[in-house]
Amino acid sequence: MTDTITPVGRLTAGTVTAVLHAAALAPSRHNTQPWRFRCTPDGIDVLADPVRSLPATDPGQRELLMSCGAALFNLRVAIQAHGIDPATTLCPRRDEPDLLATVRPFAKRSVDTRIALLAGAIATRRTNRGEFSSRAVSAPALNAMRSAAESERAWMPQLDTTQLHRLRELVVTADRIQRESAAVLRELNEWTGRAPTAVDGVPVLSTVNGSDAWLLHECGGSGPLGTPTVVVIGSVEDGQPDRVRVGQAMQRVLLTATAAGLSVSFISQPVEVPSARAELRQVLGGGIWPQIVLRVGYGGPVPSTPRRPLHDMIAGEQVRTG
């Protein structure tokens, strides 16, 4: 089976296919891949796919929006890596709330070396749910991640010892709350531990078992996670465009870390449980909405998670299979 995609603006059909494949390599909660793409003669739309939401784990679809933002960032970078400047408009139509962004390739440009580095990291980025070594993450690497977040209008505050201690407590508390929810556990069991032939969800080879103070609920358990660096990415506002925007920041941070040889995974509980997220906001000083908590360090190689066929992600009739 092959996919045939029509050209979009200055992008050939082959380039459109390539940049959509890159967009689809974004991370998502339980690898649900909650995005769709719609090609028009002038641009590529990024849409949320509510059918692939997690009503118990993510009832407000905050993480869904951030995942779509990550896919949007991959799309932007992949287009730029082909020497085309993409004009991006967030949430362009009030009458279509699932339409999160429109990207219009409009002008040729030289490829920035930093963009080329990020584009090269798209295919190699992994969520590493395994053990990290005791090797410390350098200050320059953390500063590069912080600059990556800020360039997309998000914030990665530096946490002091007291804040990290309180965050650790919130992780444990939020993890307990989620494990007491039958609905959250059903979603966890539905989407994780899948067969290697699955096209979505977290394969069984990517899960971890064990226990540690930095719990990783998305793994279906927790592992001996070493002594990682833990960072928080947040935003000043917390509306739909802000969540899409912070998803782009998250992906820029993840690709920056990947390019630096770092491993990263998500610590989701303290931003998924509303009471823990509200308390974490106060821990951070009350001026930033915490959106993502990341575990950063040096880990071993991990397999990639699967992706759906491209034609399953396309909205409308732009893709024909045959």
UniProtKB/TrEMBL annotation:
Ranges annotated as spanning the membrane: none
Nitroreductase domain sequence ranges: 122-298
InterPro entries xrefs: Nitroreductase, Nitroreductase-like, Nitroreductase/BluB
Pfam family, one: Nitroreductase
Name of the protein described by the UniProt record: Nitroreductase family protein
